[in-house]
Structures are given as C-alpha cells and as structure tokens.
Structure to design on (322 residues):
C-alpha cells in the first residue's frame, strides 16, 4: 500500500497500517518520496529509493532548464576573439572563442585573474573595441560601436576635476541635449541614489576614493542605459571601503533592477554581487572556464556555510585573488 499526506486522511482508521510511513513533501519542489509496505525487502526499498532520487534529480534539472529558457537574453557573445597589434607587427592575442549570454535584469560577474582579457571583453561589449572574429549583439542587434544603451564605469575614477559632483553627473546629459532643468532633476535623483546628497557642490579633490567612484556610478546611471558595465571599479579602494561599496552596488542594483556586468578578480566580491559568475582563465589569450549559479539570498552573508562552500568550490578550480 502507498500513501501520501492527502490520502491518509481518507483511509478508515481501522484499515490504516501504522507501519506504513507517510509520503512527505520536500521543500518547495513539491516532489513526493514514495513509501513502501513495512514487509517489503530492504533491497527492493533501496532500489525504489535510488530510482526516486534519479527521478527527482531529473525533475529539478528540468525545472532549472525551463526557468532559464524563460529568461530574455539581453547580451550575447558568440565565439568572440580579439588580438591587438603592438609595435607595428607584434600580435598579442587577448581573447579566444568567448561565448556567453547575459539575461535581462541579471547581475553577471566576470571573474578571472589579471591579464586574462576581462576588461577587453567589457570594452568590446561597450563598443569601444571591435571583435576580430565572432559577434556581440544586444536585443538581437549587432553591437558595432558605443551607444546610450550601455554605460561603462572605469577602473580609475575618470572625473572632470574642474566640475563639481553635480557637474560630473550632468556631463553626459549635456551631451545628450538635456535642458538645465532636466539635468538638475536627473542628477539630483541619482546623486541621492548613490548616497551623496549634500555633496553636490564638492569637487573631486575634496572627495574620498569611494565617493569619487559613486560619482562615476551616478553619472553612468544618469544616462538611463539598458546595461551597466563596471570594470573592476573598486580595485583602488582600501578593504573596508571596498566592502562598503560592494554592498552599495548591490543595494543600487536591487533598487534599480537593470542588467549589469561586473568585472573583478576577487572571489568574495563576485559571490557578494553576482546572480551568476562566469570565469575566464589562462594568461593571454583568455578563454571561458566555468559558469556558477549563485542561489544565495540577498543581502548575502560572506560567513554563511553556503557562501563558504561555493567559495571553496571556485577556489579549487581557479587561481584567483582571494
């Protein structure tokens, strides 16, 4: 006899065999584990349980596949390779056959050691460089140059020293032809979002490193791009400020929910931020290594067992800065 939690209530009390265990639903998967008569041989029970484990694994895998199929691909790189020419004739291959997809509203982290082509990949997506082979497209259209639908935050601060915080945030808006009233309204909104209200009239030399980078993030967001590209933006910051800025970036992303590609060489930073982590490996030319799903709840605890377990898994495969 086989029973589930719903069937047991319908069985007359006198007919219920108390030795028959109850089917219990597991977590949020709504899968049931069959139970068997107490008189069944242990080998048969084990055989059935092995079958059920395989069945459950296939069901979960199918569920993940169906969920990923529902996602809209925002940016796709197809077999992208890039070689630079130095000193006139010397060829330096930087990327080789890189293929990846970035989903709408996803925070994707590209993780890898120095000199593996991470920044070059981001510049290709930004349209600041062109591919030698392969194709990069956004919403189905080929990327063949810079555009207002993508904003890039550089490794260095890249602020205009003669402009105030507000002036730096408004710089792109001026080029876009926004009038003064629109510029001030948009700049005020994003200055507040990055937590710099009250510092609008400060100049870059009056700001800390973390504040300067927040100005760069606000300037990038002010153009209202569809995709944010961040190229190791916190590499120059001290450890405490860097951790604070990582949490700030996650807060801003959760508030705004737009597609973001974040490049880093730091595993902890990648795990704190990413929905997925794509790793590049090897000295030049860099190539795709592994992709990791990060199913941890936000905001993330970098001391939780789940965080440390995934961190350990990545460190076993990659040689990275910890």
């Amino acid at each position: 006899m086989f029973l589930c939690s719903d069937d047991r209530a319908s069985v007359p009390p006198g007919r219920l065999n108390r030795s028959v265990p109850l089917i219990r639903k597991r977590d949020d998967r709504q899968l049931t584990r069959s139970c068997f008569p107490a008189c069944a041989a242990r080998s048969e029970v084990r055989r059935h349980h092995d079958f059920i484990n395989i069945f459950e694994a296939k069901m979960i895998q199918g569920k993940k596949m169906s969920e990923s199929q529902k996602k809209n691909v925002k940016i796709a790189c197809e077999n992208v390779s890039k070689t630079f020419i130095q000193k006139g004739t010397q060829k330096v291959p930087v990327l080789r056959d890189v293929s990846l997809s970035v989903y709408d509203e996803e925070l994707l982290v590209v993780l890898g050691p120095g000199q593996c082509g991470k920044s070059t990949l981001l510049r290709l997506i930004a349209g600041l460089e062109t591919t030698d082979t392969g194709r990069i497209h956004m919403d189905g259209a080929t990327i063949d140059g810079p555009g207002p639908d993508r904003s890039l935050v550089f490794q260095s601060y890249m602020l205009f020293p003669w402009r105030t915080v507000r002036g730096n945030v408004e710089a792109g808006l001026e080029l876009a032809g926004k009038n003064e009233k629109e510029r001030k309204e948009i700049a005020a909104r994003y200055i507040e979002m990055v937590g710099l209200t009250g510092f609008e009239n400060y100049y870059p030399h009056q700001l800390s490193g973390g504040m300067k980078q927040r100005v760069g993030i606000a300037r990038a967001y002010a153009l209202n791009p569809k995709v944010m590209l961040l190229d190791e933006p916190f590499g120059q910051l001290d450890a405490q400020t860097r951790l604070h800025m990582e949490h700030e970036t996650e807060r801003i992303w959760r508030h705004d929910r737009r597609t973001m590609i974040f490049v880093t060489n730091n595993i902890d930073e990648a795990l704190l931020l990413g929905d997925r982590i794509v790793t590049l490996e090897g000295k030049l030319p860099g190539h795709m290594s592994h992709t990791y799903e990060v199913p941890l709840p936000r905001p993330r605890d970098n001391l939780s067992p789940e965080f440390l377990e995934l961190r350990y898994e990545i460190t076993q495969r990659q040689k990275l800065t910890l």
Summary: Residues 42-70 form the longest helix (29 residues).
